[in-house]
Design brief:
The protein is of the alpha/beta class and 203 residues long. The chain has a single domain, classed as Rossmann fold (3-Layer(aba) Sandwich). The protein has 4 helices and 10 strands, in the order βαβαβββαββββαβ. The strands form 2 sheets. Strands 2, 3, 4, 5, 6, 7 and 10 form a 7-stranded mixed β-sheet that branches. It has a 3-stranded antiparallel β-sheet with strand order 1-9-8, with helices on one face.
């Protein structure tokens, strides 16, 4: 088991920013009868729960999940849906809720998939973003924090499904992740160095 890492974003700081985001979203969607919040599993579930309870506009919640096959240390990845929405979104105002935006590949896949279903509007709310890795033209309508290009855990974010339920966001020592990568065995279909991981925004 991994030890809890040092704090990058405290629970109080996260709570304050979530309240600010909820206020901004509530103002922007004033007059909308039923805003649909789409949480990306697994990482966004805590953020989505806290955000939805702070909104002052009527809303409902659904979830979507995708997987990524990552190929070695390169940025290429194949994204596929493993759990779809339970409700149609045509004509509805949709807010996609992500835990983290890293390379932007998952977010690009999800926005293209959802826009093809003709929602009345589609906006993005992300708790964290790694600006060093996110594409310059990637639009995020509501952003919590920019963070360093390091592996972070807590508040829904995990490392090997550990530390997900920490009340804060902490930054893992790079030596921890490097050891895991060096000792990892392939789980991809090609039997080489591909790794399969469940993603929220990027995980």
């Amino acid at each position: 088991m991994l030890a809890p890492p040092p704090v990058l974003l405290s629970a109080d700081r996260i709570a304050g920013r979530v309240t600010e985001l909820a206020g901004q979203i509530s103002r922007d969607y004033a007059g909308v009868d039923d805003l649909l919040l789409v949480g990306v599993l697994r990482g966004a579930f805590i953020f989505l729960a806290d955000l939805s309870r702070r909104l002052t506009v009527p809303c409902s919640v659904d979830f979507i999940a995708v997987s990524r096959y990552e190929h070695g240390s390169t940025a290429t990845a194949d994204v596929r849906s493993i759990m779809d929405l339970r409700v149609p979104i045509a004509g509805r105002h949709v807010l996609l809720v992500e835990d983290i935006v890293d390379s932007g590949g998952t977010l690009d896949y999800l926005t293209r998939t959802l826009r093809a279903r003709n929602p009345a509007s589609l906006r993005i709310c992300a708790l964290t973003r790694k600006p060093q890795r996110a594409p310059a033209g990637l639009r995020i309508d509501y952003l919590g924090f920019d963070i360093p290009d390091q592996w972070v855990v807590g508040y829904g974010l995990d490392y090997g499904n550990q530390l997900r339920t920490l009340p804060y966001i902490g930054m893992l020592d790079p030596a921890v992740t490097q050891r895991s990568v060096s000792g990892a065995t392939a789980s991809g279909a090609d039997g080489g160095d591909a790794r399969l991981r469940m993603v929220g925004a990027e995980r």
